[in-house]
Amino acid sequence: MLPDKKNQTLTIHNFIELQTKTIGDVKNKLVAEWHKNVADIYQKELSLMKRNKHQALLFFESNATLMSNQLRQLVSDSLVLYKNFFLRFK
């Protein structure tokens, strides 16, 4: 979470602490929720696809693409937010 324009009175130390905490929160959410949900879905799908290896392969390849795109978008959105934040001080 970045400070808004009205609340820009942070020291560098506080800014770094806030960003480190936010990064940890996002990482924990990815591991605790996203990863768990994916694992649950995979378990269900694997039990349904035991006999059809081609369908399972397509499912996992599609999921890998989707998950990669989601992570890429998360990073891209974060970089845009940082860029816009730092441009305010130009």
Specify the biggest β-sheet.
none
Which structural class is indicated by helix and strand composition?
mainly alpha
Strand elements, count: 0
In the predicted model, the low-confidence regions spanning at least 5 consecutive residues are none
Strand content: under 5%
Mean pLDDT: 86
The number of helical elements comes to: 2
Helix proportion of residues, in percent? over 70%
Q: What count of domains describes the coordinates?
A: 1
Shape: elongated
Based on CA atoms alone, the radius of gyration comes out at 19 Å
SSE topology string: HH
State the distance separating the first and last CA atoms: 20 Å
Description:
This protein has helices spanning 12-48, 53-87. The protein is built from two helices and no strands. The protein has one domain (12-87). With 90 residues, it is mainly alpha-helical. The model has no long low-confidence stretch (mean pLDDT 86). The longest helix is centred in the middle third of the chain and has 37 residues, at 12-48.
Q: What characteristics describe this protein?
A:
90 residues, mainly alpha, 2 helices, elongated
What can be said about this structure in brief?
The protein has 90 residues and is mainly α. The protein has one domain (12-87).
